Every structure is written in C-alpha cells, then in structure tokens.
C-alpha cells in the first residue's frame, strides 16, 4: 500500500487540502490529488471514503501539470520548451459529488468529505446502488461513461410505472433508436406475459423479432388496388391468402436480404350468409427453421365504422365543418338509398341537383349549403376530406364476393406482439390506420386493465414525426393533441405505455415532448439537445456519441445517466 493508503489499483488518490471542498445548495465539489499512472476520464465514477459516509463522485475536470507550470517559468522559444525535462507534479482531479451514502441510505451530499479521505474505484454494481437506480423494470442497457465505455455489473432498468408515463427516444439516423425499441419489445414480450406490444412499422424492421423466435401478429392493410391486383378477374379468398403471404414476405424479409426458407402456410376463412361474401380471417406462416411464426391479419375499414369519426382519422375538417358534418351526412342519407359509403356520399355531393338558380342546375352540395345556411367552402372542406379517405384505398375494400373487413381486435390485441405493417401504403392511409388502431387500443384496454391491473399495452411509435407532426393548421393541431392527450394522459390509467422515437424532433408535435416523462437521447445535433434541455456540459459528448450511447433523464432516476445500448433483438441496418 502506497503513501496514504493509495495503491493505484483500488485506491487512486486522496482529497487534497490544496483546493477547498465545497457543498452548497447549488453544487458539491471537491478535488483529488493523485500520482497514479492511469487515465482519469471526464465523467468517470469514483467513490470517496470519509468517516461514516461514502460519496459517489464523478470526474468533472482532469488536469496535467509539470513543475514549470506551477513555478510559472516563462518559455521563450520552442528549443527552450523541448530542452527542459518534463517533471510531473501530482495530478489534480476535480470531482463532482453526486450522492452521499450512509450504509444503504443514499441522498444528495449535505457536507463535504474530510481532507485526505481516500478515493477508490467502485466495486461491481456499486455505482447503480449509490445512484439509487431501480432494481426492477425493463432493461435499457448498461451504465456507461460519456466516452462510451460501459460499467460491468451495472444494469440500467426502467420501471414499468415510468414506462407508463411514456418515453421519447431521440437520435440521428443510425444512432440506435430502432435497436432500443426492438430490445424493449423483445423483453416485454418475453418477460411480461400480460403485455401487448404494438409496433407501428413504416419501414419493416419490427417484423424481424420473428428471428428471435417471437410469434408476430401482423395487421396488414389491404387497399382496393391491392385486392384488384391479387384477385384479377376471377380470384377467390385462397388467391388472396397466397398473395398476402407473397407480398408480406417480400416486403418484410426478402427486401432486407433475409431468407425464411420453406414454410407451412395455413389460412382461416369465413363466409357470411348476409350478402354471401367471403373473408380471410388470418394466414399463419410457419418457417421450418424457427419455433415461431407470423399470423397475417388483413385490415381494412368500412364506411360505417368511421363515418362520424372522419376528423379523428384525418384531422382535415375545419371547426365549421366539424359543427355541420353530422347534419350534412343526414341530408345525404335522406336522398341516397341503401347503405351509405364514402363513395356514394362523394358522388351525391358533387352531382347536379334538381334545383336551378340563375340559369344553371346547382350541385347537391350547393343546395345543402343553402338549406343549412352555411358557406359553400365548408361543404367543399367536407368533400375534400371524404375524397382523401376514398383515395387511401383502405375503406370499403371489396371485389366480387371477397371482402376485407376490420379484424376482431379482441383476438388481434391479446397479449403478445403485434406489428402494423405500414410500409406498403401511402402516407394518408398510414395515418388513417394508425389513428384508428390507436383509438381501438385505447378503448380495448379500458376494460382489459379494469379486469386485470397487470394487463398492459406498450405502443412503440418509430418515426413518430410521421404520425404526430408539427402542423400549420390549428384544426389539425387540435386533433393531434386530442389523440396524444387521450392516448398518454388518459391511457396511462388503462395500462397504456407509449414510446415515441424520432430523428427529427423539430418536426414532432410539441405535445409529445411535454407528455413524455422519460427522455432517452442518443447522438443528436446541438440545437436538438438544447431544445430537449440537455445541459451544455453533456452536449459535446452527445453530438459525437457512438451508436448505442444514450443520455437518460427520467423522474424514476434521481440523477441523469449515460447508458450503453447493445442489440439483443435481430436487426438489419
């Protein structure tokens, strides 16, 4: 053991008398002196042993000086600089005191440690305990330093309660966002048997948990154009089932260079007496080399399901249009026989009426506007909204006697892993599907969570700016914020947790930032870090962080921490 008990293995220095040790209401810092020939990295954790207390400290500044620097010896030339031998003095290390622990009770430092207190390297798991990190929850990764190195035996967990207070993951492309979300999905499905994980996948990455032997249920939107292509002039439900499998495997696996090999395919059909139509309930695909399989569930909407909820799935109606929409639909219903569809409503509104005015026949929407005493522009807004829904292609999907209905959500949303396969449809269709399914999740989980308080649903929203963007329209902004508030604030009481991820937080609705109580920040631009309130002292590390290094702030932790995230779920890209 060296001078003062410093052996440079476990013990690496002493608290020095050369600089004052200070604990105030705003900060707590001390200085360590050391002669150990080792690196002292900024952000590294050390333990200060003082009488009756142990302090967890973090290196805030590391200085190297030689005797000529201390003596302020002037250097007049480069030759003189190189001619003088370097004679190091003991290194001075500035330490930020993080916590003060007496036995197992840890809290903020209230007094400085004694001068000449020894400073040592933490033992296995000691940093996590002194930080009072949770001992239960889902694994985010390993505790890390700002330089990216991880601390062994120090796992960082996020409690389920914190997950239900919602999470925002931010990082540039390739920083590790999708890796983290897939890790969370894998753990929730594997370790929590009463959780339904719903992944919104606009790219195709989230299907690959199949290769971790996770059973995947896929809600696959089918448009009218797709059904026409699948069935041709005389196809039936069997042709539809085969086409769904072919398209799904190509887009979710083959396009990523993944070959599933030979697989068994089993489809479940139903025939409805009313109207004599046939539907594909689901198609089960079982690759021969895996223990798990994929269940493809065709998805589409009927007009009657969303007729009075069009603004909930589009956000396109103005305030005036929302006020009069129901009366407009009633006026159309009085004129159009049979079951209403959006196509029938649209065709009626733009068709000529029997009413003539100033030498021309008025269009039906002009007559309705006159009769209701509203401006024609309000009717035009309603017409544009209905046309947008028609053009998504996912409403009233039927060809011959084959119909694609909305699925049985009690079956689709049972505990397990569900993916919304959004990659094969246009952006408006994606948004309609996302808003509709999230609305169903909210309503479905109300009764589920009431029956069983351990029942939970975790919604993973990658590329969140696509579905919850900043908007110029106040009407669309109000619609999005209603969705977000209900899903997050009210959904929490129904066991719903939402994890949003984006590489474009400036394009993300401000409400997402306000409603997420845990922020996981990977490599990001300076302006993004500033907007998220990341301290300037940490930004220089995060602007250049390696993939998988994250800075985590949450009410569940007393102190922000760095975490090293390593892939546990199968991932391509």
Give a nutshell description of this structure.
The chain is α+β, with helices and mostly antiparallel strands and 573 residues long.
Description:
There is one protein chain. It is built from 19 helices and 26 strands. The strands form 4 sheets. Strands 10-9-26-25-24-11-23-22-12-21-13-16-15-14 form a 14-stranded mixed beta sheet, sandwiched between helices. α10 crosses α13 (376-392), α11 (342-349) runs antiparallel to α13 and α12 packs across α13 (376-392). The two termini are 50 Å apart. The mean pLDDT is 91.
Key descriptive features of the protein:
single chain; 573 residues; alpha+beta; 14-stranded mixed beta sheet; six-stranded antiparallel beta barrel; 19 helices; 26 strands; 32% helix; 27% strand
The helical percent reads 25-40%
Average of the residue pLDDT scores = 91
Count the E strands.
26
Rg: 31 Å
Question: End-to-end span in angstroms?
Answer: 50 Å
Portion of residues in beta strands equals: 25-35%
Give the overall form.
Answer: elongated
Which sequence of strands runs across the widest sheet? 10-9-26-25-24-11-23-22-12-21-13-16-15-14
Query: How large is the count of helical segments?
Result: 19
Helix/strand class: alpha+beta
Largest sheet: 14 strands, mixed
Low-confidence runs: none
């Amino acid at each position: 053991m060296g001078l003062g008990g410093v052996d440079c293995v476990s013990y690496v220095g002493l608290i020095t008398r050369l600089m004052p040790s200070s604990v105030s209401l705003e900060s707590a810092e001390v200085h360590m002196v050391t002669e150990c020939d080792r690196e002292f990295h900024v952000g590294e954790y050390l333990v200060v042993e003082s009488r009756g207390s142990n302090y967890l400290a973090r290196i805030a500044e590391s200085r190297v000086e030689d005797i000529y620097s201390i003596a302020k010896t002037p250097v007049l030339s480069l030759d003189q600089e190189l001619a003088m031998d370097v004679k190091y003095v003991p290194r001075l290390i500035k330490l930020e005191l993080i916590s003060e622990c007496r036995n197992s009770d840890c809290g903020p430092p209230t007094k400085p440690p004694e001068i000449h207190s020894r400073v040592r390297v933490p033992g296995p798991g000691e940093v996590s305990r002194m930080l009072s990190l949770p001992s239960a929850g889902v694994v985010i990764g390993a505790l890390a330093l700002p330089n990216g190195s991880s601390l062994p035996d120090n796992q960082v967990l996020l409690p389920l309660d914190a997950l239900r207070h919602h999470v925002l993951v931010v990082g540039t492309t390739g920083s590790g966002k999708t890796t983290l979300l897939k890790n969370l999905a894998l753990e929730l499905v594997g370790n929590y048997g009463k959780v339904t994980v719903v992944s919104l996948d606009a790219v195709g990455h989230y299907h690959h948990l199949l290769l971790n032997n996770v059973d995947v249920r896929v809600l696959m939107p089918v448009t009218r154009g797709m059904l026409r292509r699948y069935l041709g002039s005389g196809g039936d439900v069997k042709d539809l089932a085969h086409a769904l499998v072919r398209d799904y495997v190509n887009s979710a696996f083959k396009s990523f260079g993944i070959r599933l090999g030979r697989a068994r395919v089993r489809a479940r059909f139903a025939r409805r007496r009313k109207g004599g139509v046939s539907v594909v309930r689901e198609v089960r695909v079982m690759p021969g080399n895996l223990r798990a399989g994929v269940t493809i569930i065709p998805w589409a909407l009927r007009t009657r399901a969303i007729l009075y909820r069009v603004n909930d799935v589009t956000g396109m109606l103005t305030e005036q249009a929302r006020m009069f929409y129901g009366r407009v639909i009633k006026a159309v219903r009085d004129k159009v026989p049979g079951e209403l569809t959006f196509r029938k409503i649209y065709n009626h509104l733009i068709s000529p009426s029997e009413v003539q005015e100033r030498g021309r026949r008025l269009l039906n929407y002009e007559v309705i506007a006159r009769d209701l005493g509203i401006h024609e522009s309000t009717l035009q807004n309603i017409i544009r909204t209905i046309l947008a829904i028609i053009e998504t292609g996912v409403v009233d999907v039927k060809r011959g006697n084959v119909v694609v209905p909305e699925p049985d959500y009690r079956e689709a949303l049972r505990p397990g892993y569900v993916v919304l396969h959004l990659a094969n449809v246009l952006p408006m269709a994606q948004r309609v599907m996302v808003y509709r399914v999230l609305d169903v999740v909210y309503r479905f989980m109300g009764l589920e969570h009431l029956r069983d308080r351990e029942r939970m649903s975790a919604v993973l929203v990658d590329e969140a700016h696509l579905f919850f963007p900043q908007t110029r329209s106040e009407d669309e902004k109000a619609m999005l914020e209603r969705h977000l508030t209900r899903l997050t604030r009210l959904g929490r009481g129904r066991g719903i947790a939402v994890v949003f991820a984006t590489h474009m937080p400036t394009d993300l609705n401000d409400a997402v930032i306000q409603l997420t109580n845990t922020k996981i920040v990977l490599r990001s631009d300076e302006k993004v870090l500033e907007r998220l309130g990341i301290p300037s002292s940490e930004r220089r590390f995060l602007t250049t962080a390696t993939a998988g290094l994250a800075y985590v702030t949450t009410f569940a932790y007393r102190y922000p921490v760095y975490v090293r995230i390593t892939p546990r779920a199968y991932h391509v890209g």
